[in-house]
Write a structure and sequence with these properties.
about 450 residues; alpha+beta; conserved putative lor/sdh protein from methanococcus maripaludis s2 fold; OB fold (Dihydrolipoamide Acetyltransferase, E2P); six-stranded antiparallel β-barrel; four-stranded antiparallel beta sheet; disordered C terminus
């Protein structure tokens, strides 16, 4: 009987050990044991920036229009001998297009005829004046003789009066002749002005480039009729120098106080992913605009485009450099945001941790470019311990930090993950569905 009891007791012990082992295994296999994500503290450069979006613009653009109406007959040739088109390189005086000039040529011919007619009228007026002066001279001599003789038996009173009247009439005719010449001269000037106008309009039928540059937009086609009314129609858009471009950026009023001329700027464009371009602030335009109650200012950024890679009107993602630090310790912002539970904090640091929590020291809450206080955590199994930092600027991903015990290469905690999650991430993708379902049931 005693032997039987001993045997039963041994069986119970074995079963208890087996059950305990299975329970321990079940807990190890399915319990949510915490593991920590860490990242190393690095040393390097840090730049605090403000982000904005802008558009690449030519530094100086000339809008070439038409001053006369008419049909486009042809385009000119660029520096390479090709018809004027998008991207054509032109020089000052290069013919861009020709407008039908038949009407304007007829107007010029008519104006030229009017000039000739005015010249003839002036010449005739001068000749008439000479005749009037000759008659006046004869009348003056007759009148002088009549005055010497006077009314008498030798000169009747009627003849005396006739000589006097002839003298006065010829003198008046001379004055009329002189006025006629002035009128003819004015008519000639008017005709010449009309001729110059018609010739200028005829010249406007040939559209020429006013500057050296590149055609970035051609807005007409051959055969199209342009109508010049109050506003000259735009035919071509010429960029004077594409080796120097500007980026026009709309900056929020909350950030405009941090922007100043000659401030370094970097930007990227989607056309060249991974490539960073540099420039500097040129000017801040004072004519603010408001969109949906948001006030923005346009900032002009000057950049060099000597290699010609940047194209006009690309969208630019701009970063204004506020501050720069070199060779500083850089802490991930995620490490500053992470907070442990009180029970995993090393006993020697639990009181400082509680005090810091009570004072609402929120890690990672400072704005870019501002300093503050923060805390990061190191793993010293089975606990974590804090390092209190004085934080400076950050670039949105990393923060400059200084503190006792913070050195390059130290791994700080950035987050946590469950052990079951870690197993799921490393599970063999070739595991059968049956084994997966079984594992899933055992994990619940």
């Amino acid at each position: 009987m005693k032997h039987l009891l001993k045997w039963a007791l041994a069986v119970l012990i074995v079963l208890g050990l087996a059950g305990g082992g299975y329970f321990w295994y079940f807990q190890q296999e399915n319990g949510e044991h915490v593991t920590y994500r860490t990242a190393a503290v690095t040393r390097g450069d840090l730049v605090a920036t403000i982000g904005a979006t802008g558009t690449v613009e030519p530094e100086e653009v000339i809008d070439v229009g038409a001053q006369v109406a008419g049909r486009i007959l042809s385009f000119g040739k660029d520096a390479r001998g090709n018809p004027i088109d998008y991207g054509s390189v032109v020089e000052s005086g290069t013919v861009l297009a020709r407008i039908d000039d038949s009407l304007y040529e007829a107007d010029a011919a008519q104006a030229q005829a009017q000039v000739q007619s005015a010249k003839a009228s002036l010449q005739r007026a001068r000749a008439d004046l000479e005749q009037m002066k000759a008659r006046h001279l004869q009348a003056d001599r007759d009148w002088q003789r009549a005055r010497q003789i006077g009314p008498s038996e030798a000169l009747a009173q009627a003849s005396f009066d006739a000589y006097e009247a002839a003298y006065a009439a010829t003198r008046a005719n001379v004055a009329v002749g002189e006025a006629t010449i002035l009128q003819a001269m004015a008519s000639l000037d008017h005709a010449k002005a009309a001729l110059r106008r018609s010739r200028r309009n005829l010249g406007y039928c040939t559209i020429k480039s006013p500057v050296d540059g590149v055609i970035i937009d051609r807005r007409v086609n051959i055969g199209q009729t342009v109508v010049a009314s109050l506003n000259a129609p735009s035919l071509f858009l010429i960029a004077k120098d594409l080796t120097r471009l500007q980026v026009w950026v709309a900056v929020n009023e909350a950030d405009i106080g941090k922007i100043h001329p000659n401030q370094p700027v970097t930007f990227t464009v989607d056309a060249f992913p991974g490539e960073t371009f540099r420039g500097e602030v040129g000017k801040i335009r004072l004519n603010a605009s408001m969109t949906q109650n948001v006030v923005t200012y346009t900032v002009e950024i000057v950049t060099d485009n000597a290699n010609g890679r940047l194209l006009p009107y690309l969208t630019a993602n701009v970063r204004f450099e506020l501050a720069r630090a070199s060779g500083v310790l850089r802490v991930p912002n995620a490490a500053l945001r992470w907070k442990p539970k009180a029970e995993v904090v090393a006993p020697a640091f639990r009181k400082p941790f509680k005090d810091a929590t009570a004072q609402k020291q929120k890690s990672g809450s400072q704005l870019m470019g501002q300093s503050g206080q923060g805390v990061v955590w190191l793993l010293e199994a089975p606990y974590v311990r804090p390092i209190f930092l004085r934080t400076e600027m950050n670039d949105g991903t990393l923060t400059e930090g200084e503190g006792d015990g913070l050195t390059e290469g130290v791994k700080v905690i950035t987050g946590t993950r469950m052990q079951a999650e870690q197993r799921d991430n490393t599970r063999n993708p070739f595991t059968t569905q049956f084994m997966r379902r079984r594992s899933g049931r055992s994990s619940r």
